[in-house]
Specification:
The protein is of the alpha/beta class. The protein has eleven helices and nine strands. It has two domains: 72 residues, Ubiquitin-associated (UBA) domain (Helicase, Ruva Protein, domain 3); 204 residues, Vaccinia Virus protein VP39 (Rossmann fold). Helix content is 42%, strand content 18%. The strands form two sheets. Strands 5-4-3-6-7-9-8 form a seven-stranded mixed sheet, with helices on both faces. It has a two-stranded antiparallel ribbon with strand order 1-2.
Length: 285
């Protein structure tokens, strides 16, 4: 019977020759998932035997990873902001950089709440996908009134599932093309819209990239949905309401200019975990 250490070595080798970027890390995570063990349990028990059924599951996981399926889709889960979200091919896998969007939103909301005795602050997350931003905000600040929207029926299903799993209830959801069908007014609107260039996405799809096209493609130059959100937001924000957007670092200057052109004030660019310009905010008068 094969041991944990031997299974990891074989898995690492398989993924290395399949040109996976992080073969040892992926093999460790997938073996742990197959056996129902944590990374720490695996690494502290290298000589433990791997049962036949567990090793069969591990080989199935390796085969899917070699075909380009992300580890998060194989495991059907992804940690984001210390919460474990369900994910599958209907939604984008949450990225660590998007935690900068949540952190900035919480900082803005805390400052707004400290200077006001008004009712609960209303927050809306557009292009919500798995719901990672909206749910992380609600989980972190129970007193907020958080809602979300997306145009994808599949995303709505995943969002509702994650709400029930992580919050014990469903947050209000609107099936909407960006902000067109959401009511408002909101004190804060967040969005991590698709911002890749259409050509990039087509190249990714040709090599089998499994994430949904509509969660990736942002138009010819990647800025179409960002620009549309900036145009639509003033009608959905309360006075002094804030729009908070995630974009590619190369698009930050464009987003800043568009916010200023549409009358937003106090426009600032906030770096992500790697120090790159990632989150852009603006406030209405």
């Amino acid at each position: 019977m094969i041991t944990v250490q031997a299974a990891l070595k074989r898995g690492q080798s398989t993924l290395f020759y399949a040109e996976v970027d992080t073969p040892l890390l992926d093999a460790t995570v997938l073996l742990g998932e197959a056996l129902g063990l944590s990374k720490e349990q695996l690494l502290t028990s290298p000589e433990a035997p791997v049962q036949e059924e567990g090793y069969r599951r591990f080989q199935e996981f390796l085969d899917r990873r070699c075909r380009g399926i992300p580890v998060s889709y194989i495991r059907r889960k992804k940690e984001f902001f210390s919460l474990e979200f369900y994910v599958d091919e209907r939604v984008l896998v949450p990225r660590p950089d998007t935690e900068a969007l949540v952190e900035e939103a919480l900082a803005l909301l805390d400052r707004r709440a400290a200077g006001s005795q008004a009712e609960a602050l209303r927050v809306h997350d557009a292009c919500t996908g798995s719901g990672c931003v909206a749910i992380a905000l609600q989980h972190s600040r129970a007193g907020l009134e958080v809602s979300a929207s997306d145009r994808s029926p599949g995303a709505e299903e995943v969002f509702r599932l994650n709400c029930r799993r992580l919050l014990g209830r469903e947050l209000p959801f609107h099936r909407s093309d960006l902000l067109k069908q959401v009511p408002g007014p909101y004190d804060l609107i967040t969005a991590n819209p698709p911002y890749l260039r259409d050509g990039e996405v087509e190249d990714m799809r040709k090599v089998g990239w499994p994430e949904p096209r509509e969660a990736l493609a942002g138009g010819r130059d990647g800025t179409a949905l960002l620009a549309a959100l900036i145009r639509q937001a003033p009608a959905r924000l309360a006075p002094r309401g804030i729009l908070l957007l995630e974009a590619d670092p190369s698009q930050a200057a464009f987003v800043r200019q568009r916010l200023l052109a549409w009358g937003f004030q106090e426009v600032e660019v906030v770096p992500d975990l790697g120090g790159r310009p990632r989150v852009i905010r603006g406030r209405l008068p």
